[in-house]
Amino acid sequence: MELERMSDMRREDIITLAIETSCDETSCAVLRGGRDVCSNIVSSQIDIHRKFGGVVPEVASRKHVENINIIIQEALDKADMDFEDIDLVGVTQGPGLVGALLVGISSAKAIAYALDIPMIGVNHIEGHVCANYIEYEDLEPPFTSLIVSGGHSYLTYVKGYVQYELFGRTRDDAAGEAFDKVARALGLSYPGGPLIDKLSKKGNPNAIDFPRVYLERDSYDFSFSGLKTAVLNYLNQMQQKGKDIVVEDVAASFQQAVVEVLVEKTIRLAKETRSEKIALAGGVAANSGLRAMMKARGREEGIEILHPSNILCTDNAAMIGSAAYFNYINGKISSLDMNVVPNLELI
Amino acid sequence: MKVLGIDTSTMTASCAVLDGDTLLGEYSINQELTHSESLVPMISEMLDNLKLHISDIDIYGVATGPGSFTGLRIGVATMKAFAHIFDKPIVGVSTLEGLALNLTHSGIIVPMIDARRDRVYTGIYRWKQSRLENILEPCIMNIERLSEILDKNDDDIMINGNGVRQYGDRLLEVLKSRVKIAPAGLRECRAASIAELSLLNRDVYNRDDYYNLIPTYLKESQAQVEFNRKESGS
Ligand SMILES: [Zn+2]
After folding, report:
1. Strands B119-128 and B131-142, sheet pairing
2. E strand or H helix at B13, and its extent?
3. Alpha-carbon distance A305 to A320, whole Å?
4. Which domains does chain A have, with CATH numbers?
5. Omega into A118 within 30° of 0, i.e. cis?
6. Would residue A94 be called left, alpha or beta, if left means φ above 0 and alpha means ψ between -120 and 50 degrees?
7. What one-character-per-residue DSSP string does A242-309 give?
8. pLDDT per position as a tens digit, A87-107
9. Domain B2-94+189-230, second-level architecture
10. Could you say which of A63, A295, A312, B140 has the lowest number of CB atoms within 10 Å?
11. Does the pLDDT value for residue A7 go beyond 60?
């Protein structure tokens, strides 16, 4: 019945309400079609988690349930819509923190049931890729995508809107996780990634020769824990020798080591898959060093480099709405007994 | 006046519809399925059988705890969304008071919800005419301490809640024949009781409480406890 109603309307006019509560952002968005964002409200809990030095799952879950209806109403207001205008509900199914995900999923199920509209459980990582469809209204697959954030690092070839070929992933720490751990060792507050980026601009990226970990010759996988350890060892040694640490230089040299590996592997995959475009995605896609080096290498190779604007790089519901839309028009609908999948992989 | 009540505080997921003082239906399932999977399909099946639509509900009543943090959030988030969509009142009810309402015992009623590590969420209730009186406010308590408190009391005690399974024998040992365990059908959380209390307490709540309602945890997160300890230690 729902599908019939949907076919009567133009696909681009489908209104999606999307909810994202996988970590420490409570977010709700309203989209028209897969790319037109009517509203995208993001309520960050960073200030609450900072005193703990990282995201505390139980605290995050409590905050989500406290906020969620306020955020949903804000998203509807900003989009100038009511619940009756919604055709589709998209919600993050995983990966993420179980308790946090469950709050969003509970709301989404209630909305889908009460309004008798379809619900789509969305893979959060796919959501990050879809942020690029919002940013670039003409972007179509295929392209190569590097997805890097605090929780994940994936190198993938995007064959179609819901078709991914996975080439590389991290074997230990996610890229953003390495940033956060090094930041902590440098005594920077949480979250450390943006602070390292900021300090790097004032430091010398060649001051310290940290290792570039490429793994096997043909591998597209990543490994950042060795680099993280090298930074920690360097800091220890300097301390033992009683030498001053130039924080800016450490930040810049560390960032350079991460970025070089990310860029080289991504460019290599783009060439292998003959991609004309590379789309960056995830929180670390906001890193200015990564963007700059990727663009420089892209120019050399004749590959266009895309990345979402900063608000769409970090966790937000608009990207979940976009992914929900593309999954829906490709025939995916989730049932109301859907469960969370905290360790959901991209494919 | 139709009330949809739910309770997801413990392993038992329960939903019920009360129309005035008539119980139209109640579903309870006590098994390993998570409430996230079972809750909405359960409500849907019950309402379908009653030939009701979710929009026919006038009041949404939800057990706010204490109990399983995750279970409480699933229940509260679900019911807040319903109330929000239809702009209808939501009423939060104590899970312990709900349990007490299951029983018509003439002495004191002590519901207990397992809080792990020898602790229970508990409170003490007593019927006074046709109303439940709360003698000991809901709290988290060591089972030994609870048995001490009850031991000082001469009253005829009845206990229920999922804490009975784990700790009922410990109380029986100390209190002997002064304590009775509620029959199985009245031992677990029941949404009918939550619905009834919601109807009684509806005036306490504001129309837009679907924005503000949160679970009653009675316990801070472990991270906050450790943070507080560090703060006071330094
Ligand atoms: Zn993310």
Report:
1. antiparallel
2. strand B12-19
3. 22
4. 3-130+313-329 (3.30.420.40), 141-309 (3.30.420.40)
5. no
6. left
7. TPPP-HHHHHHHHHHHHHHHHHHHHHHHHHHTT-SEEEEESGGGG-HHHHHHHHHHHHHHT-EEE---
8. 999 999 999 999 999 999 999
9. 2-Layer Sandwich (3.30)
10. B140
11. no
The residue of A337, A338, A339 whose CB has the most chain B CBs within 10 angstroms, and thus the best one to mutate to test that interface, is A337
Q: Which of A300, A338, A323, A343 is nearest to A33 (CA)?
A: A323
pTM comes to 0.95
- Report residue B85 as tokens: 């969509």
Give the tokens for residue A308.
């979402």
- Domain B103-181: which CATH class? alpha beta
Q: In whole angstroms, what separates CA B14 from the centre of its chain?
A: 10
Question: Could you give the residue range(s) of every CATH 3.30.420.40 domain in chain B?
Answer: 2-94+189-230
How many other CB atoms are there within 10 angstroms of residue A87's CB atom? Answer: 19
Q: Kindly list the residues of chain B whose beta carbon comes within 8 Å of any beta carbon in chain A.
A: 34, 36-41, 43-44, 54-55, 69-70, 73-82, 84-86, 210-211, 214-215, 217, 221-224, 227
pLDDT, tens digit (0-9, with 9 covering 90-100), for A265-294:
999 999 999 999 999 999 999 999 999 999
Assess contact for A35 and A324: CB atoms under 8 A. no
